[in-house]
């Protein structure tokens, strides 16, 4: 399929889904309320649902591009910030600020801690697995990272000073865009934008690495610099996303694979389509969560895990059959 056609189609789908997202919720808000600021439903649209919709697009784009960049860098189809523990490390950094009460002192502390945890996670992952590691080695390195980060989070929960801290941490870990405001969007946007720019700058390096490290080096690619830029880019984008929404997994695993079946192509060609696909997936998921008539809104992170788990299993079965 033509790449420009896929990009155009994804943009059209996102544009079509935005008004549906703005209308959907416990109280359905029709179009006529959008243009009358005297209507009591007008603040629901522009103070609650619009920031949430834009944040869903931003987080989906960040996670989708991060997954594509990691898969291109490692030449590994299972690379993804959520599956390989990068998101868990970001969560650990954020949870520590909640546990010690540091997040209450300044709004930027929690995002900064999440970003630092994600960057550390990328470096640890590459150090544990190595750039030329097999699929199994890379997944095992991710499992180690997940286990360490999960143990840290569990420890914080078990010795939390009060039940309110436990409830806050648990609610945040399940991943949701409920009650997010324009302030959350403002905090996440600079980090995500910087991370995505860093990943886009690696397009030539990712294409060269598809030929192997030796070939990439012979083409003038600075491997050390590429690793640093990738860690910074994925860490900034993933850390800010986790800080804004909590744990939302599998987006970076699912989207690049779906996009690759449509356009194929080199790692550089997958970055922008994966960002758009991630934005569409998260926005659609969040809209669906609000449309389901339940007493309390289903967490977005739970829904993404329910979708991503079977997808991950199907990928592993497919890879096993090809290897047989």
Euclidean distance between termini CA atoms: 30 Å
For the record, the count of structural domains works out to 1
> What would you give as the CATH superfamily?
ABC transporter involved in vitamin B12 uptake, BtuC
Biggest sheet: strands, sense, closure?
A: none
CATH-level-2 architecture: Orthogonal Bundle
Keywords for this entry:
324 residues; mainly alpha; globular
SSE diagram, text form:
Elements: H1 3-23, H2 42-74, H3 86-99, H4 109-129, H5 135-158, H6 163-173, H7 182-200, H8 203-209, H9 213-218, H10 223-245, H11 251-263, H12 267-291, H13 300-323
Describe the protein in words:
With 324 residues, the chain is mainly α. It has a single domain (63-323), classed as ABC transporter involved in vitamin B12 uptake, BtuC, CATH 1.10.3470.10. It contains 13 helices and no strands. Helix 1 (3-23) packs parallel to helix 12 (267-291) and helix 2 (42-74) runs antiparallel to helix 10 (223-245).
Give the structure's gist in a few sentences.
Helices cover 74% and strands 0% of the residues. The chain has helices at residues 3-23, 42-74, 86-99, 109-129, 135-158, 163-173, 182-200, 203-209, 213-218, 223-245, 251-263, 267-291, 300-323.
């Amino acid at each position: 399929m033509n790449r420009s056609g896929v990009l155009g189609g994804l943009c059209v789908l996102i544009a079509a889904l935005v008004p549906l997202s703005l209308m959907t919720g416990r109280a359905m808000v029709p179009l006529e309320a959008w243009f009358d600021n005297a209507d009591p439903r007008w603040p629901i649209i522009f103070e609650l649902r619009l920031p949430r919709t834009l944040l869903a697009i931003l987080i989906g784009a960040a996670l989708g591009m991060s997954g594509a960049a990691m898969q291109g860098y490692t030449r590994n189809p299972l690379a993804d910030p959520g599956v390989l523990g990068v998101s868990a490390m970001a969560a650990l950094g954020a949870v520590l600020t909640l546990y010690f009460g540091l997040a209450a002192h300044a709004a930027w502390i929690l995002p900064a801690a999440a970003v630092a945890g994600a960057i550390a996670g990328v470096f640890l992952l590459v150090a544990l697995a190595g750039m030329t590691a097999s699929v199994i080695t890379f997944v095992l390195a991710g499992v180690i990272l997940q286990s360490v980060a999960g143990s840290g989070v569990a420890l914080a929960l078990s010795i939390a000073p009060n039940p309110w801290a436990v409830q806050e941490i648990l609610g945040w870990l399940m991943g949701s865009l409920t009650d997010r405001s324009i302030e959350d969007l403002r905090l996440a946007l600079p980090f995500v934008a910087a991370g995505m720019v860093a990943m886009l700058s690696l397009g030539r390096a990712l294409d060269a690495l598809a030929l192997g490290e030796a070939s990439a080096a012979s083409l003038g690619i600075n491997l050390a610099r590429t690793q640093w830029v990738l860690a910074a880019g994925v860490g900034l984008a993933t850390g800010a996303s986790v800080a804004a929404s909590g744990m939302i997994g599998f987006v970076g695993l699912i989207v690049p694979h779906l996009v690759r079946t449509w356009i194929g192509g080199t790692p550089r060609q997958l970055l922008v389509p994966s960002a758009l696909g991630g934005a569409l997936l998260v926005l659609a998921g969040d809209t669906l969560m609000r449309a389901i008539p339940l007493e309390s809104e289903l967490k977005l992170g739970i829904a993404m895990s329910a979708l991503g788990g079977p997808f991950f299993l199907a990928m592993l079965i497919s890879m096993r059959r090809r290897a047989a």
